[in-house]
Structures are given as structure tokens and as C-alpha cells.
Amino acid sequence: LAGGIILGVALWLRHDSQTTNILYLQLGDKQAPNTFYVGIYILIAVGAVMMFVGFLGCYGAIQESQCLLGTFFTCLVILFACEVAAGIWGFVNKDQIAKDVKQFYDQAFQQALMAESDMNNGKAVVKTFHETLDCCGPDNAVGVITPLWRDDLCPKKESFLKNLIESSNCHKKIDELFSGKLYLIGIAAIVVAVIMIFEMILSMVLCCGIRNSSIY
After folding, report:
1. Which residues touch 155 (CB under 8 Å, ≥6 apart)?
2. CA 24 to centroid of chain Cα atoms
3. Do residues 128 and 155 lie in contact, with contact meaning Cβ atoms separated by under 8 Å?
4. So what's the pLDDT on residue 141?
5. DSSP labels for 68-83?
6. Name one GO molecular function term (predicted).
7. What secondary structure letter does DSSP report for 210?
8. Phi–psi pair at 34, nearest 5 degrees
9. Are the CB atoms for 71 and 55 separated by under 8 Å?
10. What residues are paired with 26 via a beta bridge?
11. What angle do CA 187, 188, 193 make, to 5 degrees?
12. Which run of H or E residues covers position 27?
């Protein structure tokens, strides 16, 4: 059940409309940075393997097989080690992911403001960011005034004053998007780790109990 829940959460994160709209973008021959998906794929793999390993543990307990329970314990140790490594990787790269996406957005934004922007897809990339995240402009002076003079790039508000007040810079929105998603990944990883620790303890207790009962 835990494996199924983790797999479901990971698949939801993988196919979330906001992240897929942004991370599938392509600026010329440059693909949007999709390092974020590495953590998602690890969660998907862990969830799927947990479901299989959980079945192995249940079957081993029903059959009272020391061999199957030992295999179950070994698989859990390997999964736990992989998860710890993935957690360390995620902690190290959590700021870099948003930074790479912001740099990609800034490049597209600069191209969209150029006179020859119609010759590339910078404008389309920027509009996708703006519509998906409901934002406009980067975190600088140009970004602040962009909603006032580039209606073709920014989501249209009902009035000039509303456009000025409600427009939020895209750097902030990108940070919020990925920090929220990474927070969910972190919670899922912690839950899995706690469950795995209990599974390893209980499987060893059961395995030792079976071995001792066979002596008598």
C-alpha cells in the first residue's frame, strides 16, 4: 500500500500541468532544464519496487520462509540506501533546479523583447510561462514595467491599475512552484524511509522467530 501511494504521488507530480507545460518547452535548439524529473523518476522506481518487495515480504511471512524474508530485508536495505542517496542529491540540488529554470526563462524573455523575436519562439515560450504561472517579467526593473507596455506577452487584466498591482514577477512564481513540489517529494521520501525502517525491524524479528521455532 505504501508503495502504491508513493507511486501515485510520483505519477501525479510527473504529470502535473504546471511543471509539464514549463519543462517541455524548447527555446530554439535548447531544451528547458528538466533536472527536477530526476527526483520524480527515483520516486516512481522506489514506489514500483516497494510494491513488488511488499508482496515478496507478505508471501514470505505467510509461508514462514526465512529465505524470502531475508531477501525482503536485503531489498529494503538497498532501497533505503538508494533513497538516502536520492535525498542527499535533492537537498544539494534544490536551489539549482529553480535557478536553471529562471535562467531559461530570462533567455526567452530577452529574445521576446528583441525586434527580431518573431524569427524565434522566445515569445511563445515567455507567454507559456506567463499563462501557466500567472506572472509577468523577471525580477528586475524591466520586469516591473513589462505588464504596462507589453500586453502581447503578459496575461491581460481587467484594468490598467489592476495590471500594475496584481502582476507578479516570474522568478518568485518559479521559486514557489518548485519549492512546493520539492517539499512534497521530501515528505514522501521521509514517510517511505520511516515505513522501511519498521519493515526491516519487523522482518528481522519474524525471521528470527521462525528460525527459533524451527529448533524446537
Report:
1. 130, 131, 134, 136
2. 14
3. no
4. 56
5. HHHHHHHHHHHHHHHH
6. lipid binding
7. H
8. -120, 35
9. no
10. 31
11. 100
12. strand 26-27
C-beta of residue 184 within 8 angstroms of C-beta of residue 9:
yes
147: cell is: 505588464
Residue written as cell 528547458? Answer: 32
In this structure, is the dihedral angle defined by the CA atoms of residues 40, 41, 46 and 47, taken in order, positive or negative?
positive
What is the model's pLDDT at position 152? 63
Concatenated DSSP letters of 105-163: HHHHHHHHHSTTGGGSSHHHHHHHHHHHHT--S-SSHHHHHHHHH-TTTSPPPSSHHHH
Give the separation between CA 144 and CA 103, rounded to whole angstroms: 17
Residue carrying C-alpha cell 525580477: 139
pTM: 0.71
Q: How far apart are CA 22 and CA 87, in angstroms?
A: 24
At 137 the pLDDT is 76
Question: In this predicted structure, what is the pLDDT of residue 216?
Answer: 45
Q: Which helix (H) or strand (E) holds 203?
A: helix 170-215
Query: What are the φ/ψ torsions at residue 135 (nearest 5 degrees)?
Result: -140, 180
- Please state, in angstroms and rounded to a whole number, the distance separating the CA atoms of residues 163 and 150: 11
CA distances, 186 to each of 135, 160, 193 (Å):
26, 41, 11
